[in-house]
Structures are given as structure tokens and as C-alpha cells.
Inverse folding.
């Protein structure tokens, strides 16, 4: 936990120093779900598509007039990975990929996003679309061990691209796609781990209430 607090403190200091004194600072709670694929209907929440859930705290810094800033969150994430194997992978590897031990992981995730809001005259306090992008750092909170051949890596990095809308100046509803930058599984034996696409790529749908 000390390392998590150190990362959060350092990130806050960097953001605070980069923004002028007129910047607006807000904080709140953020809840959501992760899904394997984005569907523009109610099927996005079907059990076969749902990949996990997330919840935590969020802060937001915004520079008035230009409406450019950052948001920073500390989230608990229960993630169900969608690892796949290539055609040459052995049957044993394919069986392991379908097991809960291989697919399910818990993380403390710290996403830091650059955020731009589109401020429309007269209605921006009611509706304000926004776009985000930035890195996400995930620290494994569940067990590393999967079996005698593989273990989960303790640290995961992704890059997020998102969009959303702010309503009544407090509620933010958004969706983002995270592109995994590193494999999340480590081979402990001479099993061919190159046959496994172990990167976490996922959609996240969240709602945040900011004060």
C-alpha cells in the first residue's frame, strides 16, 4: 500500500505543478464495469460479454476557458482476461487459458488521463462531451500463482482512449478502451509462452459523480 500511496502522491504533485492557480479541482466516486466488446445495445451487459467490475475514487483538474486538464483515479478492478492462443499452441495451454485461475485477476489500477471537454455556449453546464487519453498502471492485488507453469505478473501497463459526456456539471458517464502494453503472464518452465497473447485489452464503462 505504501507504494500505491507514493505513486498517487507523485502523480498529484506533477499535475498540480503543471496547472495554473486558476485551475478547477474536483473529486468524487467512480463505478463501472469492464466488458470484452462494446455493443451499442443492452447486450453489452450480457454475462457472456461482461469481463469484470471496478470502483474507486477520482480527482479532476480543469483549466477554465481552454477546458483542458487531467483526471486521476485509484480503482479496485476485478478483471477477467480474454487471453488467446495461436493455432500452434498445445492442448494443455488452451485448457489453461479457459480456467478461472488463468483468466480472473484483481488489481489496484491508477489511470491518469489527459481530458478535453467541449464547452458549448449556454448548455455546457448541462451537457459537455469530453475525450480522454493516457496511461493506466495496474498493481496485482490477487495471488501471482496460476499453476506450476505460469504466474501472473505483478505490474500491468495499458494506454487508454475514451470519450464520454458530463451531465448537470457533476455526473460523468464514459467509455474507454485500454490497450495492454505488456504481457500479464510469466512462464516458470520451458513451456512456450510466446503462443499466448497475454495482454489485457478491454473496454471500461464507468459513471462518476464529482463534487
Amino acid at each position: 500500500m505504501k507504494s500505491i500511496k507514493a505513486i498517487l502522491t507523485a502523480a498529484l504533485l506533477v499535475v498540480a505543478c503543471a496547472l495554473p492557480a486558476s485551475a478547477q479541482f474536483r473529486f468524487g466516486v467512480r463505478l463501472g464495469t469492464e466488458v470484452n466488446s462494446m455493443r451499442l445495445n443492452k447486450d453489452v451487459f450480457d454475462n457472456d460479454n461482461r469481463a469484470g467490475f471496478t470502483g474507486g475514487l477520482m480527482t479532476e483538474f480543469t483549466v477554465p476557458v481552454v477546458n483542458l486538464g487531467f483526471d486521476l483515479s485509484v480503482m479496485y478492478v476485478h478483471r477477467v482476461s480474454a487471453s488467446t492462443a495461436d493455432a500452434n499452441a498445445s492442448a494443455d495451454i488452451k485448457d489453461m487459458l479457459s480456467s478461472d485461475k488463468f483468466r480472473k485477476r484483481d488489481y489496484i489500477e491508477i489511470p491518469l488521463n489527459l481530458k478535453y471537454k467541449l464547452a458549448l455556449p449556454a448548455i455546457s453546464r448541462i451537457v459537455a462531451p469530453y475525450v480522454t487519453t493516457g496511461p493506466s498502471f495496474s498493481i496485482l492485488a490477487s495471488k501471482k500463482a496460476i499453476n506450476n507453469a505460469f504466474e501472473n505478473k505483478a505490474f500491468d501497463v495499458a494506454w487508454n482512449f475514451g470519450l464520454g459526456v458530463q451531465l448537470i456539471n457533476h455526473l460523468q458517464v464514459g467509455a474507454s478502451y485500454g490497450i495492454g502494453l505488456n504481457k500479464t503472464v510469466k512462464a516458470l518452465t520451458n513451456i512456450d509462452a510466446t503462443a499466448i497473447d497475454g495482454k489485457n485489452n478491454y473496454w471500461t464503462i464507468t459513471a462518476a459523480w464529482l463534487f
